[in-house]
Amino acid sequence: MSQPSNRWINPDVVQYELWPGPGGYPWADTGVRLWTREAILRRIAADRLMCTWTTGGFAEPVDGNFTMATFSDDNGETWSKPAVWFRHSHRGLFTTELFVPRTDEIHAFFQTYTLGVWLTQLHSYRCLSTDGGHTWGNIHSIPGGIDNVWVNQGIVHSSGRWIIPVSWAELIGPEWCPPTVGRSSAQPVSGGKPLDMVELPWGSDEGLLYRAGGAWANRNHRYVIGVMISDDEGASFQLRGYLWRDRPCHFFEPKVVELSDGSLVMVTREWCDGWLWQSCSTDSGETWSPLERSTIPNPSSKVRLLRSRDGRIFLIHNPTGTDGTSRGRRNPLSLWVSDDDMLTWKVKMDLVVDPNASLNYPDGFIDEERREIHFAWEDGKRVYIMRVPMDIW
Length: 393
Description:
Helix content is 4%, strand content 44%. The mean pLDDT is 94. It has one domain: Neuraminidase (6 Propeller). By secondary structure, the chain is mainly beta. The protein is built from 1 helix and 30 strands. It has a 5-stranded antiparallel β-sheet, with no helix packed on it. The longest helix is centred in the middle third of the chain and has 15 residues.
């Protein structure tokens, strides 16, 4: 499918549309609609790649969301027919991480949810493949009792420890019960005291319930980030870090990268502050410094941090801020490169520019042998794969 006429693509990169592709979207009776979100691209063997994305229903988050997947055995030249990969019977489902600690081993982390409570009442799970995604084991809870987190892109630290950033919501406000459509079956009570709750009229649509649920969540929850660590190759996990602030307060989707001395930097988006925030660890993720605002602008959008063997750090993101009260535009999609552990950014280069679209959620890996960065991104309707030379400048 051709690019939108007003979209500029850097001439030094290679890009193609992965989904839905030349045939367009499947018919509506498949449950797939004209939207897509948050593709994940991973190398799982020498020439074998895997890409997943969320779709289903009319948007996210709704109960009809599910994950699709496709595989390539020739380094992305051709792909298998996309198919539904994970779907829940009656809850929405979102795959957020494919952790590949070694060749052919994939730890798929995903969550289920219900419209109206979304981030605040996630059920978190893992599914494991040890043969490059050809077969999968049983879906199971994350070992260690971690059951209500949004899992993000993990790394294998130089110590061998697995470090996987996560975010979660904690109820702290008085409105214990989420919004309902129509009159609830009973008045919520705590210690004999009636509690306030939001009741929407019968016939309220999903969009209204989502907005009401989001407002309820923001009034009554603390948004926290940290990391899951494993020293036994995923047999168990423990939470470390407990990072939050009163203002700004809506932190989620953190990312982590190892620096040249073995220390760690975690960056995170915030709802409308206009900047990425960051924390550091000097003890392999055991403890973390308080969150501080970075100098990297961000319109509340997920970023991708990658570190190459030569020590350079690559940041793929939307380098635009906001007015501090509302989220800004996710345009352009750019590459920044640092050769001094993120103290400065030697390269700042646009990859895609489109003033009429959101250029969302880059996610991928570094191909050291081919000297390329491979990543997927989406514009809300289509998934694209891009290959960028590591020395593009």
